[in-house]
Amino acid sequence: xxxxxxxxxxxxxxxxxxxxxxxxxxxxxxxxxxxxxxxxxxxxxxxxxxxxxxxxxxxxxxxxxxxxxxxxxxxxxxxxxxxxxxxxxxxxxxxxxxxxxxxxxxxxxxxxxxxxxxxxxxxxxxxxxxxxxxxxxxxxxxxxxxxxxxxxxxxxxxxxxxxxxxxxxxxxxxxxxxxxxxxxxxxxxxxxxxxxxxxxxxxxxxxxxxxxxxxxxxxxxxxxxxxxxxxxxxxxxxxxxxxxxxxxxxxxxxxxxxxxxxxxxxxxxxxxxxxxxxxxxxxxxxxxxxxxxxxxxxxxxxxxxxxxxxxxxxxxxxxxxxxxxxxxxxxxxxxxxxxxxxxxxxxxxxxxxxxxxxxxxxxxxxxxxxxxxxxxxxxxxxxxxxxxxxxxxxxxxxxxxxxxxxxxxxxxxxxxxxxxxxxxxxxxxxxxxxxxxxxxxxxxxxxxxxxxxxxxxxxxxxxxxxxxxxxxxxxxxxxxxxxxxxxxxxxxxxxxxxxxxxxxxxxxxxxxxxxxxxxxxxxxxxxxxxxxxxxxxxxxxxxxxxxxxxxxxxxxxxxxxxxxxxxxxxxxxxxxxxxxxxxxxxxxxxxxxxxxxxxxxxxxxxxxxxxxxxxxxxxxxxxxxxxxxxxxxxxxxxxxxxxxxxxxxxxxxxxxxxxxxxxxxxxxxxxxxxxxxxxxxxxxxxxxxxxxxxxxxxxxxxxxxxxxxxxxxxxxxxxxxxxxxxxxxxxxxxxxxxxxxxxxxxxxxxxxxxxxxxxxxxxxxxxxxxxxxxxxxxxxxxxxxxxxxxxxxxxxxxxxxxxxxxxxxxxxxxxxxxxxxxxxxxxxxxxxxxxxxxxxxxxxxxxxxxxxxxxxxxxxxxxxxxxxxxxxxxxxxxxxxxxxxxxxxxxxxxxxxxxxxxxxxxxxxxxxxxxxxxxxxxxxxxxxxxxxxxxxxxxxxxxxxxxxxxxxxxxxxxxxxxxxxxxxxxxxxxxxxxxxxxxxxxxxxxxxxxxxxxxxxxxxxxxxxxxxxxxxxxxxxxxxxxxxxxxxxxxxxxxxxxxxxxxxxxxxxxxxx
Length: 1057
Known about the structure:
By secondary structure, this protein is mostly beta strands. It is 10% helix and 44% strand.
């Protein structure tokens, strides 16, 4: 018995002792008829439903059981097996080997038994199934989850005589079955001699309380040279009028070719066809027949003996006749035949008279008559029809019924007659006939449903709609015309309308009556303003006066009772003066009671209460504080008539047609105003003004709870990508408390921003209009992209300048940041070099000074750029070793945002001379760059390579001159050397000229701070082979403060256009 909050309850507990509950799913197995030489397997399932495990043995009744010396013990969920003596194992192993090898001996085909055993296919299967020499016997099925292995040879579990029989036990002959598990036991039929065979088996158990279970098995073997591999052909589930195919494979065990003739019974010849009807099967080979099954609708009548109408099962016997063989080869075709019909509960739908501004729907039932799932879809649906769910497509389960919604929306005034086509996956059509009459009113509304937001008292919500007159012509062949079905066309001309607004709905429609000319539209404004009427306020004021009077009466009666009690206490305890002194009300206090008890308070009439009186204000405050939210829905009819309203003298008279009436549905929720904005302007707007990109302006807004309720405040979701952001959370407000809302404005574009913020409560919404203007700082830079400082001598400073111009009207804060000083520098340097990566390395950081010191510096680093002013920045380049790949990135941040990125580049040499140009032959990574070494005498120790590839393009069967250039310069330096310029000359030009190369000039002198251009040209000779590439080299010597030798490599080739 258990006791809960809902009361006591009991649970029935049933107990029983552990025992075995053993049974098999089938006690009788009939293999049927099979050809000699085949191998057939059947299984039975032994199940233990009890809570106690046991050991079982599966054996024939006429054979001795397994060796009793084998014991199986269960200990801690693990099984162990004990063998008998080694001599018996060796003997049984030998016997098993002889038994297994006896199937492999070639025998004479004259003997039926020996010819059957000589089949290699069956022999292999038998060897695989029954040869256990040197292995273990599995005596538990995998289905039980436990496997017991008995070491030793299989003859201990299977008698040699048993292996020679035709009906045998499979691999599982004994084992342990655990509680609530099952074991599968296999029985094999290997027919060797024609005839019927019957064998009895028994499953015995070690549990004395469990009885043995008998198993009876019978089979029949026939000996024919030709057999069917699959005597039972199962075509599964088939549909009428659909073609299904399969192959019938036959096998010839004879040594000669035989003629086969297939025969279909007369009743099924219109449904089943076998091709070819006659064929020859070669000796020791196979032959295949093609089965074509196409069930007709007349199958039930044609094949009454083979087809069951109730179960829809077809069992068709087929026969294969073999030449010179009396006994035919039979096989059976099995199939379940079902139809493919989809059925609707109604074949006709009448939607009636429908306006083009309305939708009419009905539900039909779709039923699947087939026992197979079918896919379906409504195709070629007209535009005015919609089928749901899933747009009319889906899958219907066998014998299932589905609800389909057919929605009709008339597009024009006419009579509709159409068919809905439902097509199944097998291309069958099922149709529904539909009809309707569409009406086209002469006027129409832009929208017919208005959902107002929850509007507080004295607040207002506005919706706008249009009444349109699109009827400009009675020509029905160019455009739709207003009419009812195929009736008379409405006249073209002024058409009047009138909205009938219900009383006390707090709705105002302007204009409520009007006339719309052809081709024009009239704007109609619907205003919802929930207000308290003066009569309601006056009635509330009267009630308050009654309550006040009643409260005063209770107070007077309470004071009088207290006085009387005090006087009686004073008389009874006259000696206790302290009681008189401590009395809450002095004995001198006197309250006058009404002279007459029947004199009641008379409140003034409600009409006499003036709107400026305190009573009127008290009534208003009382109604506002105690106002309950309401939701009112109104359906406003709009009557339509031809002509103008001024034609009728009687007021309020407007002839109309019921079929042309339009309806406007309005939903009006109204609530009490619990929340007000006590800071800002009267329009509940917060204006931030002009704010620059990257800046944030913060303003505080106060809201107050003027209701008597505890308010949980929530806000609407602002645009997450917008500039406005609420910085603090909203907290609950007690009555009369205030809350400060902090709002930030961070513009991202140069435009005016406007976004509404709604403070939500359970009863009302307080809208706050946020506005501000984003101003983009207009900054111009004198350098765009790359700033190359040029060459300088190692350990010397070189400077360059650039300017930033502020063209905006706001002051801009700037910060200069070098990439080499950024926090992500070390992470970016872990990347592979650019020459090893497949994609370009995005970093701008190149070679830096030793010790990871930045080679560039910028001044000033930060500051404020005044409006309409400019600022000059100085970039200093100070290298400490020679490199041509100094690089760094300079980020210009405005208000914390990167405005532009400038790549700073520079090169440093130990000598005054430098060479630039040509094709790249080195890499930008410093760790792999090999710089030349100079001795103390100033003599060069190695040459520097310069590569020039020249390409000549043939034109008009002539070769053009290919030209390349490179520059040689001299660095202006403060080094005190005797030589301030660089001299250059080439050696042995004759070899180059012989190959068509020309260099100009060959000897020059370059002053400090200048550079000269060297031009290399190549013109192929007249008999030059375009497929040949000319390669040459020449040494160039430069003399400055040191002497350097450059090896100029020239590669020239002809490029076809």
